[in-house]
Design a protein that fits this description.
9 strands, SRSF, RRM domain-containing protein, single chain, alpha+beta, mRNA processing, spliceosome, about 140 residues, Nucleotide-bd_a/b_plait_sf, two-stranded antiparallel ribbon
C-alpha cells in the first residue's frame, strides 16, 4: 500500500490472472468494483510464464487489505477461479520525469538518490547535468 500525493489517499494494488481472454478492463472493472473503490485496471499485453493473461487492479481507501485479499481470491468467472493476490514487487515511485528529445524517461526515487550520492550534494547542484548523466548511465 502506498499513498498518492496527488490524491492524499491510500492506493492498494493487486495482481490478478486466470480470466477469460475476451474480458477487457471494463468487464473486470464491474467485477472488482463490487469489492471496493477501483482506481484503475491494467491488463498486460504479454502473458505470464504459465501463458495466462495477467493484470493489476488498484483500489483506493482500503481499510483492511488482508480481508480484501481473501475476498478477491474467491472470484470465479464461469467455472474458472481467478488468481488474485498482493503483488510480490512494489512498483517503484517516480521521483521525476525527463523529456529528452521527445522521449520521456521515468526516474525512480532510488535512481535519483543514487545519482545525488555519486555527484555529492554541495548545494550548488546543476539538475540538468545530473539528469543527463543519469540518462546516460541508465540507457547507454
Amino acid at each position: 500500500m502506498r499513498r498518492s500525493a496527488r490524491l492524499g489517499r491510500r492506493i492498494t494494488s493487486f495482481f490478478f490472472s486466470k480470466f477469460p481472454d475476451e474480458y477487457c478492463e471494463e468487464n473486470l472493472w464491474k467485477i472488482f468494483s463490487k469489492y471496493g473503490k477501483v482506481w484503475g485496471i491494467f491488463i498486460a499485453k504479454r502473458k505470464d510464464k504459465w501463458r495466462n493473461i495477467y493484470g493489476f487492479v488498484r483500489f483506493i481507501d482500503v481499510n483492511n487489505v488482508a480481508h480484501l485479499d481473501k475476498q478477491l481470491d474467491q472470484i470465479t468467472i464461469g467455472n474458472v477461479k481467478m488468481n488474485v493476490n498482493i503483488p510480490k514487487f512494489e512498483r517503484p515511485q517516480v521521483a521525476f520525469t525527463i523529456d529528452e528529445g521527445g522521449t520521456s524517461y521515468r526516474v525512480t526515487e532510488r535512481e535519483s538518490a543514487t545519482l545525488y550520492e555519486m555527484e555529492g550534494d554541495t548545494g550548488k547542484t546543476n539538475h540538468d547535468h545530473k539528469e543527463r548523466q543519469l540518462i546516460t548511465q541508465l540507457f547507454a
